[in-house]
Each structure stands twice: as structure tokens, then as C-alpha cells.
Write a structure and sequence with these properties.
The protein is of the alpha/beta class and 382 residues long. It contains eleven helices and twelve strands. It is 34% helix and 13% strand. Helix 7 links the parallel strand 6 and strand 7. Bound molecules: pyridoxal-5'-phosphate.
Length: 382
């Protein structure tokens, strides 16, 4: 594990911008932009497109995902959004759920992980049980202690998206196993920035958008489906997921058989040349850096910031309660200004979620960005 120096030259971020908002939208790598422009240009020459090119990028993405996050390449589907993945999970589970069953959610989770279950609750009559923000910050224990025999599904995250609070999936996985509950994970705020192994966690389902910590384009996500569920019903019936799809001359000889693995869960038109090449370029760069090294490098920036913020009167969670790459800090008591607005006028970008400011740097951050942020905060929080 080693610290990577600022990689600013690989991004297109003007010197006057200090961008600490990767949890909102990761900055695009130059390599991704170039791959996407090449894809856009290829669309002007459709006569050059071969049938196999409708599939190749998705296969490359599956391989890269398995190398980075574990699991088998066959287990990954290409989806456009987390909502698509979670809606697929809900659709698979719906016929197995009965009135009196419980779906466990975490308080203030991102809507993509909640709305599909609210529909199921209305239509099937299952109970949605929401684990409240734990007073001691220990989400893992709070979630584990809410899992009882009525719980059939736990929809969890690796990290609370509002403030970076850490959620340890291993004990949650064990508690799910004990009552035969399904574990569905949204890893959007983790994948790419924090080591995570699907082989170790063995979730039933795991989904993550690519446009945050995976530095990919908006409109692409990875969806891992464990072997147990690979025969389940997909959300849509894409012809590109059927066994005869590669032979464009006989598509009307409809095939009722799906391609192997999780390919049936791929979104229609998965081979978009204006999306997947950007994701592939970004994952290649993440692989070259190494996720351990990314985590160490961003973690170091945040740990420096957390000491500074504490001195200014922010409430900062203990290091063991938060993910290293995402730092949520509660505003000092009595502060009533519009801090993010003020920072923006100074070219500094961070998000506020509830009463927490969310510091989400990546490797584009240079020392001068951190200095700018600290100077501005010193001036604004008196
Ligand atoms: C935890 C989490 N999940 C998912 C998303 C995005 O969801 P979707 O891809 O459905 O738009 C976000 C965006 O902020 C998020 O923070």
C-alpha cells in the first residue's frame, strides 16, 4: 500500500477549482473522455460496426469488474443505474414475499434503495423496518440487532451516503445467513475507493453506479448477482441477452434461452459506445492505481481535514466509524450561514447532506486545493 501523489494532470480540472465532491459526481478522467469521444465518432460510421462490437465492451467490463471487486466475471450485469439493479432485486423477490415479512432498510438511505421496496410494501403488504441512525455511530451493530426471523431482505450499503459512516457487511452477512435473509448491497459510495471483496462478503446482490468513485460516465452501473439468483427473472427481456443474439441474420428465430451467467440482467442496448468505453477506461486507471493505494491516498487527505475540522468546532466521527474516502462533518453548533454556497463563490465544491458537510476528494486533489479549503473555512467559521 502506498500513497499516490496528486494525479491532477489526468483530469480536466482548472487550477481555480477545488473539487471535494466525488460522492456527488466523480470528475471524469481525460482517458474516459477520449474513449467516449471516439465512441461518439464511431457512431458517425455505422457501416464500420460489426455485430460482435454490440457485446465486446460489456464482456470487457465484466472481466475488469471481477478483477477489481472479486466474484466471477459471469456474475456481473451492465445496468444504467442503481434504481435499475434494485428494482430487479425487488422484482425477483416480490413473488417470494408474504404479508408479515419484513424488509430491512437503513434510515435516510438513497431513494434508489428504498422506492422499489415501498412499492412492494404497498402491493404485497410486507413491513418496511428502518434502522435509525445509531447514537453511538455503530451502524453495523444496529443493523445486525434489527435482523430477526421475520426479515427476508436486508437492503444495506457499504457506507452511509450522507456522511461516510462505515457499515461492516461481514457481520450483517452472517446475521442474514442465520435467518436465511437475502442481502442486497448498494456499493455506490464505496466501489473504486475502498477495498471490497465480493468473494468475502458474498452478497446475494450488489449494485453500484459508476459515476462517483469509479470515475465512470453517468448512465452506467455494475450489478453483481450471486449464483443462487442467476436463473431469476430479469427486469426486461432484451434480445441481446438471448443465446441467438450474436447472429443478426436470424433474430426472428426467437430464442427462449438466456446467455450464461448474469447476462440476462443486462440493460437493453448494453453495447452503447457513448457509455461503456468511458467506464472501461476509468476502471483500467483504477486498476493501475490499485484500490488499496487510492483508499490510502484519499484517506490521508481526509484524516488531515478531520483534524483541522475538529479544531474549527465541527463534529467529526471517530476514524473507525467512517470510511476513509468519505468524511462527513457536522457543522459547528450555532453556525447558520450558507457554507457550501460561500465556498462555491470561492471555487470550492463540497456537498451538504442534512447537517453534515461531506468531504469527498479523489486523486485530482493537490495540496493547493486543501490549503484553499482550509483558508476559506477559517475565514467563514469564526
Ligand atoms: C448511495 C447511492 N446510491 C445510488 C445513487 C445513484 O442512484 P441511481 O443510479 O439510481 O441514480 C447515489 C447517488 O447519489 C447514491 O449516493
Amino acid at each position: 500500500m502506498s500513497r499516490i501523489p496528486s494525479q491532477r494532470s489526468l483530469f480536466d480540472i482548472p487550477e481555480g477549482i477545488a473539487y471535494f465532491n466525488c460522492a456527488y459526481h466523480g470528475p471524469q478522467l481525460n482517458a474516459s473522455r477520449e474513449a467516449l469521444i471516439a465512441g461518439l465518432q464511431q457512431n458517425s460510421h455505422p457501416w464500420e460496426r460489426t455485430p460482435i462490437s454490440f457485446f465486446e465492451d460489456a464482456e470487457t467490463l465484466r472481466r475488469l469488474a471481477a478483477e477489481l471487486y472479486g466474484g466471477d466475471a459471469d456474475g456481473y450485469a451492465v445496468v444504467p443505474a442503481v434504481s435499475y439493479g434494485m428494482s430487479t432485486v425487488a422484482r425477483i423477490m416480490e413473488p417470494r414475499l408474504r404479508r408479515g415479512d419484513t424488509v430491512l432498510l437503513i434510515a435516510d438511505d438513497f431513494p434508489s434503495n428504498v422506492l422499489p421496496w415501498r412499492r412492494i410494501a404497498r402491493e404485497v403488504g410486507v413491513e418496511l423496518r428502518t434502522v435509525a441512525h445509531p447514537a453511538d455511530g455503530d451502524w453495523t451493530r444496529a443493523i445486525v440487532s434489527a435482523i430477526d426471523r421475520s426479515v427476508k431482505i436486508v437492503s444495506a450499503a457499504t457506507c452511509h451516503w450522507t456522511n461516510g459512516a462505515r457499515i461492516d457487511l461481514l457481520p450483517i452477512r452472517a446475521a442474514c445467513r442465520a435467518v436465511d435473509a437475502v442481502l442486497a448491497v448498494d456499493a455506490t459510495q464505496t466501489l473504486g475507493a475502498m477495498p471490497l471483496s465480493i468473494d468475502t462478503i458474498q452478497p446475494d446482490f450488489l449494485v453500484a453506479a459508476s459515476y462517483k468513485w469509479q470515475l465512470g460516465p453517468y448512465g452506467c452501473g455494475l450489478f453483481y448477482i450471486s449464483e443462487r439468483w442467476r436463473d431469476a427473472r430479469p427486469l426486461e427481456e432484451s434480445w441481446l441477452a438471448r443465446t441467438n443474439a450474436e447472429d443478426f441474420t436470424s433474430l426472428a428465430d426467437y430464442s427462449d434461452a438466456y446467455m450464461a451467467g448474469a447476462r440476462r440482467f443486462d440493460v437493453g442496448e448494453k453495447g452503447s459506445r457513448t457509455v461503456l468505453p468511458g467506464t472501461i477506461a476509468a476502471l483500467k486507471q483504477i486498476k493501475a492505481w490499485g484500490i488499496e493505494n487510492i483508499s490510502e491516498s484519499i484517506g490521508w487527505i481526509n484524516s488531515d481535514l478531520s483534524d483541522f475540522l475538529r479544531e474549527l468546532g465541527f463534529q467529526v466521527p471517530d476514524a473507525e466509524r467512517r470510511c476513509r474516502h468519505l468524511l462527513g462533518a457536522r457543522l459547528p453548533k450555532g453556525y447558520e450561514g450558507n457554507l457550501t454556497g460561500e465556498l462555491k463563490t470561492r471555487g470550492i465544491y463540497i456537498s451538504q447532506r442534512g447537517s453534515s458537510l461531506r468531504f469527498a476528494p479523489h486523486l485530482h486533489i493537490a495540496d493547493r486545493d486543501v490549503d484553499r479549503l482550509k483558508n476559506a473555512l477559517r475565514e467563514l467559521i469564526r
